[in-house]
Specification:
- By secondary structure, the chain is mainly alpha-helical.
- 48% of the residues lie in helices and 8% in strands.
- It is built from 5 helices and 4 strands, in the order αβααβαββα.
- It has helices spanning 3-16, 25-32, 37-47, 68-77, 89-92; strands at residues 23-24, 56-57, 82-83, 86-87.
- The strands form 2 sheets. It has a two-stranded parallel sheet. Strands 3-4 form a two-stranded antiparallel sheet.
- Helix 1 (3-16) packs across helix 2 (25-32) and helix 2 packs across helix 3.
- The longest helix is centred in the N-terminal third of the chain and has 14 residues, at 3-16.
Length: 98
């Protein structure tokens, strides 16, 4: 798929994450079937403002440094439990086939 199609596929995937769930950058790349976490992160930085970007998190469960406060606040608003600034992916990870 070309870049425009890839960007659209990533944004559609992120829009699919329901409130109360999160996905990692790698999860999104796997779901789309192309690229990796860094490519998804780059797309989110450039185009992600119109989708629920806060539902995409690092594989460590810790938000990116530059958005940590906003992301944690928005996740809490979605009903995601945050413990010591970290998300327990085992509890709230989005599985598209659910």
């Amino acid at each position: 798929m070309d870049r425009e199609e890839y960007v659209e596929a990533v944004l559609v995937a992120v829009e699919s994450i329901p409130p109360g769930r999160v996905a990692t950058y790698g999860d999104i790349a796997a779901y789309v079937g192309q690229g990796g976490p860094r490519q998804v992160g780059a797309i989110m930085r450039e185009y992600g403002g119109g989708v629920p970007w806060w539902r995409v998190i690092r594989a460590s469960g810790i938000p990116a440094d530059e958005v940590v406060d906003d992301q944690l606040q928005l996740l809490r608003g979605d009903g995601v439990r945050v413990t010591n600034g970290k998300i327990n992916l085992n509890q709230v990870r989005w599985h598209p086939d659910e």
